[in-house]
Amino acid sequence: MFPKEFQYASPRSVQETVQLLNRFGTEAKILAGGQSLIPLMKLRIASPKYLIDINRIRDLEYVRESGEFLLIGALTRHHTLERSELVKDKVPILSETASSIGDPQVRNLGTIGGSIVHSDPAGDWGATMIALRASFNVKSLRGERSLDSDHIFSDTLTSSLSPDELLTEISIPIPPRDRSGGAYEKFERKVGDFATVGAAVQITLDKAKKAFEKIGIGLTSVAPTSMRARRAEESLLGRDVTLANLDEAATIASEEARPIDDVLRGSAEFKRAMTKVFLKRALIKAAGRAGVIEIE
User: Which of 3.30.465.10, 3.40.980.10, 3.40.50.300, 2.40.400.10 is the CATH number of 60-173?
Assistant: First the structure.
């Protein structure tokens, strides 16, 4: 199939983009990487009257360090985050997550901002953003505001941005270098597929590297949106890094999850079981990267 007829605009600045969004509202869609939007338009699941292509706004494509934060422009490609030495040094879970997305074509064209605003609960970035406690800067003619990772996802394929708002930047707190670790573990039917289940973990240990000082857990594909496993986080905070504690947290997260039966990827019961397995793997890997030599 072919998309329905639409009007095309290619602004060269954020200001011009938000003016167009203010003018066209819900009738417009932003084209960033296009790896999700274009297939939906071809199937006529999405049929915007106006397509606003932001790929000429080079100011939205960057990765840089600013104080205690890593700043990422919304138009930054997955491939850039996968290969960036700054990312690997400061927040390596971002590189690991990026490397798991789709195939090389998708990673070369797709953008982190487009993926987040698309808000697919099976998308990989959502869980990692939650685990990292990311924040998101959005702009409109009305001004500028920031959304945190607990509030960026509203519903399936629906972000919390208003129709006249543009995501411009993602801000990531840089974890302490010597006692932090992160991991993203993904269960997929085949390489490049959407996740059947995904688990992102970012931890900081106490100075003795024995107990959890901070922890973030995000889950992929087990709820209407990417979700935070709050009770699992709380079960580990302040407790020692032991296999028993990790197993308990993974069990709690599987109970928090709200998966649905899926002809292609299995039953809700199966997905809960895989949530436990893959979250425990992520916790063990993150703990090792944080400096835990052996988990008893």
Answer: 3.30.465.10
Q: Backbone phi, then psi, for 24, in 5-degree steps?
A: -100, -20
Strands 50-53 and 28-31: parallel
Tokens coding 163: 């129709």
The pLDDT score that the predictor gives to residue 1 is 72
Amino acid at 177: R
Residues 271, 265 contacting (CB under 8 angstroms): yes
Q: What is the mean pLDDT of residues 53-75?
A: 97
Q: Are 187 and 196 in contact (CB under 8 A)?
A: yes
Q: Tokens for 194?
A: 């959407």
What is the length of the chain? 296
- The pTM score is 0.96
CA-CA distance, 71 to 195, in Å (whole number)? 26
Tell me the torsion sign for CA atoms 231, 233, 234, 235.
Answer: positive
d(CA 293, CA 74): 37
CA-to-CA distance for 212 and 204, rounded, in angstroms?
A: 6
Assigned fold of 180-290 = Enolase-like; domain 1 (3.30.390)
CA 191 to chain CA centroid, Å, is: 18
Per-residue pLDDT reduced to its tens digit, 213-267? 999 999 999 999 999 999 999 999 999 999 999 999 999 999 999 999 998 899 9
